[in-house]
Amino acid sequence: MDKDVVLRRRGYILGISLREGSYAKVKSAYSERLKINVAIKIIDRKRAPADFLEKFLPRELRVLTILNHSCIIKTYEIFETVQGKIYIIMELGSQGDLLDFIKVQGALQEDDARKKFHQLSLAIKYCHDLDIVHRDLKCENLLLDNDFNIKVSDFGFSKCCSRDQSGQLTLSRTFCGSAAYAAPEVLQGIPYQPKVYDIWSLGVILYIMVCGTMPYDDSNIKRMLRLQKEHRVNFPRYKPLTRECKDLIYRMLQPDVNQRLHIDQILSHCWLQPKTQGLSSAVTDEVESSWRAEASCTPKPCSDRKSTAKLELQKEAPPKEQPETNLDEHTVQVAMQLEALGISNQKVAKKPERTPCSKQSPEKQT
After folding, report:
1. Which residue ranges does the record assign to the Protein kinase domain (predicted)?
2. What distance, in Å, lies between the first and last C-alpha atoms of the chain?
3. Whole-model pTM?
C-alpha cells in the first residue's frame, strides 16, 4: 500500500520531504487528530542493513518510549505496515536545525547562546539522569521550534547504559557519531565513558554557537587528534568572548576524561547563571595562558556541507536488562506499539513529569 494512503487512513496529510537516506526518510505532515504539523520518519526494513535492524533500531525505539522533556523532540506514535515500513510520528522542528541557522545568522550573541545551550544542557542532564546517552550530538541534530528553542533529535546512536556490579556505568565499545564532534578517546578507538563522550560534543556545539566556526579541522583526523590531546582550543580574535564562556568551552573540551566536566558541573558553571561572577585570577591566568599557546590551531569555518564523517562501528556487548516499572499513559501507548513491532519493552522505565527547559519556554509543544 502506498505510504500516502497508509498515512491518510491514520489522519496524516503528507507534506514535503525534509531528509532522505538510503533506507530512511523524514517528511513533514499535518495531523488531523493533533491539529499540528508533524515530522514522520519512515524506515524501510527491506533496505536497512542487518546491524541497524538488530541493534540500533531497537535501541532507538526503546529510548523514544522513555523520553519526555520539552527540549527533546516528542514522539507521538510508532507503527509498522505489513510491507515492512516503520513510521515514527514526531514533533516538527519548524525552524530547521541549528547548523543551518548559524550559517544564515552567523555566530550567536552570548546571551542567545546561553539560553539555547542551557536548554540543551537540561535535555542532556535529563537523559544522563536516566542513564541514557545520545552519542551523536551535533548542530544538525538540534532542531528549533517556532520560538527558536532547542529540541534535541535523532537518537539513532543512543542507548540505555548498563551498570556493573559496583554500580559503575560500563564502557561503550561502539565507536559512532560524527568525527568533527567526537571526543579524542573515541577517535582513538578505545572503550569510552558514553556520558563523558556527550560532554565533549557539547563543548564543540557551544564553540560553534559563539564562534561560528568548528574548533578543529576534521579533514585531517590525525592532526585534529593531536591538537585535541594537547588541549589546544583556539578562539578567533575577531569574535570577542567573555572569559567565563571561554572557560566553560575549555573545560568541556578536556582530553582527560577524569577532568572533563560532568553535566551538573556545566549547569552550575558561572557562565550559565543569570548573573555571572568573574573567575578567580588564578584560574583565568591558567586558562588564558593555554589559549595563547594555541595560535597554531586554525578553526574550521562552518561549511555549506554538513559533517558526514562517520566513525567505524564495532561490536558492543548488549546492556543488561532492567526490571520493568509502572508506566504512565503515554509510555504504555508507545510500548504497546513497540510490542506490536516485535520489540521487547523491558527497558522502558517510568517517565518523570515533563520538565520545562526554561522559564521562557512555551508550554505548548510545536
Report:
1. 12-272
2. 30
3. 0.79
Q: Which fold has domain 98-301?
A: Transferase(Phosphotransferase); domain 1 (1.10.510)
DSSP secondary structure string, 335-366? Answer: HHHHHHTT---TT--PPPPPPPS-TTS-SS--
Using CB atoms within 10 A of its CB, is residue 296 exposed (0-12), middle (13-18) or buried (19+)?
A: exposed
Q: Are 325 and 350 in contact (CB under 8 A)?
A: yes
Whether 217 is catalytic: no
In angstroms, what CA-CA distances link 50 with 44, 47, 57, 311, 337? Answer: 12, 9, 10, 18, 21
pLDDT (tens digit per residue) in 171-201? 998 888 899 999 999 999 999 999 999 999 9
pLDDT digits (tens, 9 = 90+) for 198-229: 999 999 999 999 999 999 999 999 999 999 99
Catalytic annotation, pick one of 44, 51, 136, 145: 136
**Mean pLDDT computed over 52-59:** 94
